[in-house]
User: What shape does this take?
Amino acid sequence: MEKGRFSKGRFFYLWVGEASLLVRKTSGKPMLGVVVNKKTQASAVKRNLIKRRVREVFRSLQDSIHPETAVLIKAKETSTMPGLMEIREDLATLFKKVGISL
Assistant: This one.
């Protein structure tokens, strides 16, 4: 990810790189990694909920993302847990900002 791009959103940090630099064989689809640490949400249930929401938004936006892209999303430490629509808006904005959205 050192050779990729980075951007900050309202709820997330986003790193983007080429999938071919990380793995030998790629499926031709964007790859996703999601990180939510204990400082963000102390409860494992809430951390997993954020991860599930991020993966669902990524699946819905996957067709508009360049193939062969590796995306790493890290949740920011916030006092409130974002809803599905807030996550969608933040990630869509971040994808456009770093230039991976078609």
Notes: Helices lie at 44-61, 84-98. The chain has a mean pLDDT of 87. Residues 38 and 46 are 10 Å apart (CA to CA).
